[in-house]
Amino acid sequence: MKYYELMMVVAPQIEEEEISAALDRVNHYVNERGGVVVRQERWGRQRRLAYPIKNHNEGNYVLTHLEMEPETTQGLEASILLTTDILRHLLVKIDAIPQVKEPPQRETTETVVTDEPATPAEDQVTIVEDEPATPAEDQVTIVEDEPATPAEDEEPQEAKKEEGG
After folding, report:
1. Contact partners, residue 88, CB within 8 Å, separation at least 6
2. Contact criterion met (CB below 8 Å) for 109 and 131
3. Any idea of the CA torsion for 56, 62, 66, 72, to the nearest 10 degrees?
4. Which end of the chain lies in a sparser environment, N or C, as judged by fewer CB atoms within 10 Å?
């Protein structure tokens, strides 16, 4: 079995239940032919399209990662083309299913408010989580300034030669 990535743009006027039904039809097709839907991500409600597709300027994006036999991809694409809810799709063979990247975690500072007088260590709690490394001092890049241009009140050297010669 091979890995595939399926990106679909679903029509904007379609309700959430109808989107789920369209995605269930795709998932059912893959599953009944021995494939597996590894992950399915909805990229939010109605994103703006780069150009109109079938007179629509917005659409709902859905990214699906599949594992299925190569012979069944043509049938999957044919069934997607017959679905009027899906405006556009792209099925691409990939080497491996990409891992889900989690957003980088940052340092957060929380202030604890109490009625009792607190020592400096108790009134501010700092939670340190994994944060991206900052460049060390020896990694700083020095950018040289551009050559200076003559001031506006100075005449170019060529003009000075013409006057003096």
Report:
1. 8, 9, 53, 59
2. no
3. -20
4. C
**What is the per-residue burial (b if ≥16 Cβ within 10 Å, else e) of 61-81?**
bbebbbebeeebbeebeeebe
Q: What is the per-residue pLDDT across 85-128, written as a single tens digit (0 to 9) for each? A: 889 999 999 888 777 766 565 655 555 555 655 555 555 555 55
Residue 137 DSSP one-character state: G
pTM of the full structure: 0.57
- Token pair listed for 36: 């597996």
| Site of tokens 């069934």 | 79
Sign of the four-CA dihedral 79, 82, 84, 90? positive
How many other C-beta atoms lie within 10 A of the C-beta of residue 26?
A: 22
> Going from the N-terminus, what domains does the chain have, and what CATH number goes with each?
2-94 (3.30.70.60)
